[in-house]
TrEMBL record:
Oligomer status and interactors: Homotetramer.
Protein name: 3-oxoacyl-[acyl-carrier-protein] reductase
Class of enzymatic activity (EC top level): oxidoreductase
GO MF term set: 3-oxoacyl-[acyl-carrier-protein] reductase (NADPH) activity; NAD binding
Keywords: Fatty acid biosynthesis, Fatty acid metabolism, Lipid biosynthesis, Lipid metabolism, NADP, Oxidoreductase
Amino acid sequence: MINLKDQIAVVTGSARGIGRAMAEKFAEAGAKVVITDILEDGEKTAQEIAEKYGVETKFIVSNVTDYESAKNLVKTTLEVFGKIDIFVNNAGITRDGLFLRMKEDDFDRVISVNLKGVFNCTQAVFKAMVKQRSGSIINISSVIGLIGNVGQTNYAASKAGILGITKSVAREGARRGIRVNAIAPGFIKTDMTHILKEEVQKQILSQIPMGEMGTPEDIANTALFLASDLSKYITGQVITIDGGMVM
Ligand code: NAD
C-alpha cells in the first residue's frame, strides 16, 4: 500500500470533482492536504476530508489565474506545513464553441485558467521544491489536448500547452529531485461533463472502446502513483486514462 504519511499535498480546483477525488486519495494514504479553489465550498470539502481520513487539511481560497494569488497559496502552505511534496495543477474550465464563432473572451478565459494558471502555480511551487530538492508536480491535461475536438479549440490549445510545460519543467527539475508528469483524462463523470447534452454524451460513449465514462477515482489512483515513490524514475510523461479512446 502507498504511504504518504508526513507528506504535504496541494491540489488546485479541489472543492469538487477530480480535484477533490485526488485530495481524498492522498488523504487516505496519510498525506496532509491543502484544498484550494475559487469556490468557498472548498472549506466544507477540507473539513469532510479531515473527518473522514483523520488527517490535517487546510482550505486556502486561491484563483490560479492571478500570479500573486498563486504565490500566496504556496507561501501560506509553507507557513502552515513547512514544505510541499506533491502539487497538482487541476483547476480547469471549458467555454465551448465552434471555432468560427468562438468569442475572443472565451478563448482568453480558458487559456488564462487552464494554461496560465499552470504557469503561475508551477513557478511558485517550483521555487520551493528546488530549495527542498524534492517534489512531484502533476498536471491535469486532457485527451482533447492530444487529439483536438470539435467546439474545443480553446480547451485543446490549453491542454496541449500543459504538455509543453510538463516536459520543459520536467527537464529543468530532473537533476534537482523534482518530477513533473501529466495525466490526460478521457471523459470522466463530473460536473464538467454532466452539463453535456444527452446526445453528445451518447456520441462520446460510442468513441470509448470500454463503453463507459471514467470516474474521478480512476484519475485519483494514477495521481497517487505519480505522487509516490513507486514512480520515482518517471518524469516528463503523459498518462492517458480514457477507457482506450486514444491508442
Ligand atoms: P469541475 O468543474 O468539476 O471542477 C473544476 C474545479 O476547478 C472547480 O471546483 C472550480 O471551482 C475550480 N476552478 C475553476 N476555475 C478556477 C480558478 N481560476 N482558480 C482555482 N480554481 C478554479 O471539473 P473536473 O471535471 O473535476 O475537472 C478537473 C480537471 O480535469 C480540469 O482541469 C479538467 O479540464 C480536467 N479534465 C476533466 C475531464 C472530465 O471529463 N471531467 C476530462 C479531461 C480533463
